[in-house]
Amino acid sequence: MAACGQLNQKGRAEAPPNLETQVARYDVMLGQVGDLTAARPGVGAGDPAQSREIARALRETVWSYNLERSRICAKGLFTEAACGTAYEPVWISEPATTEPTMTELQARSDDLGAQVTRFWTVVCDDARTRETDETARSLVCAME
Questions:
Q1: Which of 30, 47, 106, 129 has its CA 20 to 30 A from that of 38?
Q2: Treating both helix axes as pointing N-terminal to C-terminal, what angle do 102-130 and 51-74 enclose, rounded to 10 degrees?
């Protein structure tokens, strides 16, 4: 019936029976890829001061930011901050070989930082309001 596009009582199409398992399997596979390549001999990390490496780190931070927002939105938390459209700067899909200037990288970092800081502030402010111990409250989201 789901293959015919029939809707359930709530008006939504029903998912195929194993779809959730299938999607979870992809996440496990990607985790294994990360584990198997993390300490592979003969593979060195790039120079973190190189523009290519900074650009890669910025792209990865955008992906992490979007992933965290998606997970929090799925839990129904901080919906105004977490459930909007994904942050997709124009440079997110550029090839890994692109070498932006340091001025471009600084502008990207500033924009990404503003996005992350807004989101972080909402979550941290909420956590502080729930902490009853004053010392512990001062340590919530401490950066130094």
A1: 106
A2: 30
- Contact indicator for 52, 96 with CB cutoff of 8 Å: yes
- Dist CA 19 CA 24 (whole Å): 9
Mean pLDDT in residue range 131-135: 92
What tokens appear for 41 in the block? 């001999």
Q: Of the candidates 117, 10, 7, which has an alpha carbon nearest to the alpha carbon of residue 61?
A: 117
Looking at residue 103, its pLDDT comes to: 96
Of 62, 52, 58, residue with least CA distance to 98: 52
β-strand partners of 7: 13
pLDDT in tens, 16-67: 778 888 888 888 888 888 888 777 776 566 665 699 999 999 999 999 999 9
CA distance to 25, 61, 136, per residue, from 66 (Å): 21, 9, 28
| Residue 129 tokens, joined | 């309001």
CA distance 4 to 75: 30
